[in-house]
């Protein structure tokens, strides 16, 4: 068994004008596929690993044979992060539920406080990486992650995340990462976020 690229749950142009069609094609068809190909190559022939989910590979990263641990961390992380990312995006028009707003307010003081904490983590992530809202031991946290490091390797469950690698925004936004981050808030699949929240 090997990992395969999940289809996008919407059309490549469905997130326009916030995330452009060409970026979605390259990001999904090329970048995500490459993480999968390299993850499959790393675990090829290791039947105990081939039967594990990508989440379990990441949660158990310390037990992965040392010679492929970095590859699994990077490419397994890339596969997991992107698989989640596609599902937490959706055509514009959704709003967070009152439940999400209330939970977030308890932790971050206000909705704006949460948005600001998330945006700051995304803007300040040096170089390539992600910002994630995660749940760890039942507690919500916003944090930047370098490269393709997955919250799972941290013992945290990823809930809402933004890819701030340049490949995620450079065609449309060039060096204007903050503009891409504000656009992101228009295309969040809040129903899916809530599902991950309650899982
Ligand atoms: Mn990416």
TrEMBL record:
**Domain Manganese/iron superoxide dismutase N-terminal, first and last residues per copy:** 3-89
**Domain Manganese/iron superoxide dismutase C-terminal residue range list:** 97-196
List the catalytic activities from the record. Answer: 2 superoxide + 2 H(+) = H2O2 + O2
Q: Which GO terms describe its cellular component?
A: cytoplasm
Its Enzyme Commission number(s) read: 1.15.1.1
Q: Does the keyword Metal-binding apply?
A: yes
Q: Which GO terms describe its molecular function?
A: metal ion binding; superoxide dismutase activity
Residues binding Mn(2+) are 27, 82, 163, 167
- Keywords, comma-separated and alphabetical: Metal-binding, Oxidoreductase
Asked if the keyword Oxidoreductase belongs to this entry, the reply reads yes
Task: Name the family the entry cites.
Answer: Belongs to the iron/manganese superoxide dismutase family.
What is the recorded function of this protein according to its Swiss-Prot or TrEMBL entry? Destroys radicals which are normally produced within the cells and which are toxic to biological systems.
Q: What is this protein called?
A: Superoxide dismutase
Which species does the entry assign this protein to? Answer: Candidatus Cerribacteria bacterium 'Amazon FNV 2010 28 9'
Q: What is the lineage of its organism?
A: Bacteria, Candidatus Cerribacteria
